[in-house]
Amino acid sequence: MSSDMxxxxxxxxxxxxxxxxxxxxxxARYPTIxxxxxxxxxxxxxxxxxxxxELQGTIALEHVSFEVQPGESFALVGSNGAGKTTALRLLAxxxxxxxxxxxxxxxxxxxxxxxxxxxxELTGRENIWxxxxxxxxxxxxxxxxxxxxVSFAEIESAIDTQVKYYSSGMxxxxxxxxxxHLEPDIFVVDETLSVGDASFQEKCVERMSSLIRxxxxxxxxxxxxxxxxxVCDRAIMIDQGREITQxxxxxxxxxxxxxxxxxxxxxxxxDDNQGAVRIVRATCHDATGNERSRFAPHEPIEIxxxxxxxxxxxxxxxSVSISDGRPGSIIECSMLEDGNAPATVGxxxxxxxxxxxxxxxxxxxxxxxxxxxxxxxxxxMEWLEVSAFRIHAPLGTGPQAVVAAAMGGAVDVPYRWEVVx
Amino acid sequence: MTPKKRSVDEFTYDGTRRVSLLTAIRELVTFRExxxxxxxxSFRVRYKQTVLGMAWAVLQPLAFLGIFVAFFGGLVHKGxxxxxxxxVLAALIAWTFVSNGVAxxxxxxxxxxxxxxxxxxxxxxxxLGAIISYIPDFAIGFVIFMxxxxxxxxxxGWSLALVPLLFVALMIPTVAIALPLAAxxxxxxxxxxxxxxxxxxxxxxxxxxxxxxxxxxxxxxxYALANPVVGVxxxxxxxxxxxxxxxxxxxxxxxxxxxxxxxxxxRVFKQLEREFADVI
Lengths: 421, 280
Prior knowledge:
By secondary structure, chain A is an alpha/beta fold. Chain A has eleven helices and 19 strands. Chain B is built from 13 helices and one strand; from the N terminus they run βααααααααααααα. The longest helix of chain B has 28 residues, at about 85-110. The model of chain B is unreliable at about 1-5 (pLDDT under 50). Classes of the chains: A alpha/beta, B mainly alpha. Chains A and B meet through β4 and α4 of A and β1, α2, α5 and α13 of B.
């Protein structure tokens, strides 16, 4: 346990004390019973000598500590495989930590996966009873909430139908509805809100907000950053099982977004970069020719792309697209459109694209490149994400400034408000 | 935001420390309705989409009865008062509960792997639920025995009143075997495949097709000690078919060894359950 943990007050609702989790090596492959036994004997011998056996297996969490106060909502952020879901599984007591302690006060309600805990041979009604009692709810409480659960899930007409005949949407609604109506003291939600239709998603967010308002402690894992910023007070950022930072949600999200931006792309390692034309270098430069990856809004940018090919090529058509990570491109410059393809290039050549102004809002932008044959008859190099740059400007002071800057509209125009009565 | 006012039940989840059996049992009591739900579900699901339905509950013991009577009826006839058929049927009804309870209890964690992976509940619950779900089958078997009593020439008597108590005694070896078996099956599916075979062997190692008097009285205590169903099955035979009291020393030995196995088996289960969700 780290020393700063012991100085905090004793009002916590959830507490991770130096928690580590390792999964068995080889994942699903079972070792032999013999190996297992010899391993157990070795561990026992270590224990007899009064030492703690060394942890083994792949790391999912390593020495993670945090504390969540009652009524607080707490987010875990990180890229895929960072260990967020593992942390929630430990808290939900689905699997046990291999080191440290996970402590909680009160009943934990977990919503981890679509339809978790539904039995498809049983009817919706039987499932509500089963699920409720699996989560430790007394019968009279299930009875009291039964109608709410059914109407929230919108399955009134199918309540006596076996769940195997439900659509996946219905299963999700039923699963969420049961979990959300159990009035847990600690509610654990893992990305499930991204499924289901829009109106149901809205109901889910509403239900979560009302749980938070009524004093439920919420732990939330999602890739939906606006939802995290809107709902959560504090957050922890995890990468490869280790804590990167924790604190107020705005600070953690800002750090997380910046971290995502700083990842570099290894062009040589790209599977799709093995065609007749390959990109070997992609860099951004400012007006004086210095390589940079950060720019102010409206600052001129020069994108330099170095290609290599198996042979000299006539009229290669280069296209460059700029996106902010969401589907579709914001800016596209293509020789297929402007007709500026070079007459011929050798085995190694460089292409420079000068963008005199970029009216973009502060965030990370990805650069995508494609090369087509003369006349656009076929791809010499398919669309590849080759580099990224960041438009940087002071953050606004509004309540959702971090996420709005990261996720809102991308085009930057001068504007001002005027409110009249 | 004020925290909810509710009795705070605090939990600590420490993967490196052992859970005391007392804590574990206290939690089972809290989750008794969960166990009950697993039992009710297993029972409901079991005979769904079957034509014969509940008749399956009695087909198995009756089939064995037929085989035993046909093949061993002549050989083993040192009966202690009752007919061979009545003796075998009484023991078979009890045995069927044990074998079903062990087979389905042992398989229940794998069968509910999806739940284990996604939801927290005491991991004993599906195992105990699967065993409990065979109580109605036992009751039906008992009724069949009573109906068939005039045909099988069973000596019904006051000792029938002991059957509910003996049933509790029957639960002990069943749970004692099913719990560690279920846990080990999560790690090694070998147990699952070896099980039907092992249960057949166990049947012949138990006094079902033959009375316990077939074993020399010098070694009977060891027999009852090594196989904890021996004393219980013998008691079922005596109370139901012969109409006399159980032989208490034999029952006592089997209960003692069954209880010891239960303690060890439950400890194994608690030790292994930490990684169920990760390896299942």
